[in-house]
Amino acid sequence: MEDEFNPFEIAGVSASDGERRKREPAKEEQVANVARDQLRAFVERVERLEEEKREISGFIKDVYGEAKAMGFDTKAIRRIVAIRKKSEDEWREEESILDSYLAALGMLGGE
């Protein structure tokens, strides 16, 4: 009796190796799945953070509303918050430049 034709033997692969390859996803597919899962995780994290940012923005708006209701000037408070984010040297330099420009335009009092 003649041996049956086995294409795996021609390729130098046993039949069990070929069957295993059919059952296991290719390495490239596994890498693609990992990359897809990582991408999905990044997108979902950004979405959660964006939602938190919207909530925090709402809280900040509420605080400014409370300050306004108490009679405070919210533009001045916003300016103070912006100044406090900078180093003293940074905001003093900005104020100096602003004063120079205002003086050049004749907008400073007493000149």
Features:
5 helices, 0% strand, mainly alpha, 111 residues
Description:
- The chain is an all-alpha fold and 111 residues long.
- Helices cover 76% and strands 0% of the residues.
- The radius of gyration is 34 Å and the shape is elongated.
- It starts with 6 loop residues before the first helix and ends in a 7-residue tail after the last helix.
- The model has no long low-confidence stretch (mean pLDDT 84).
Specify the biggest β-sheet. Answer: none
Query: Proportion of β residues?
Result: under 5%
- Average of the residue pLDDT scores: 84
Shape: elongated
Helices and strands, in order, run as HHHHH
Total helical segments:
5
Estimate the helix proportion, in percent. over 70%
Number of strands: 0
Indicate the low-confidence ranges by residue numbers: none
Distance between the termini: 116 Å
Structural class of the helices, strands and pairings?
Answer: mainly alpha
**From the alpha-carbon coordinates, what is the Rg to the nearest angstrom?**
34 Å
Secondary structure: elements and pairs:
Layout: H1 7-10, H2 15-23, H3 27-69, H4 74-84, H5 88-104
In short:
It contains 5 helices and no strands. The chain has 111 residues and is mainly α.
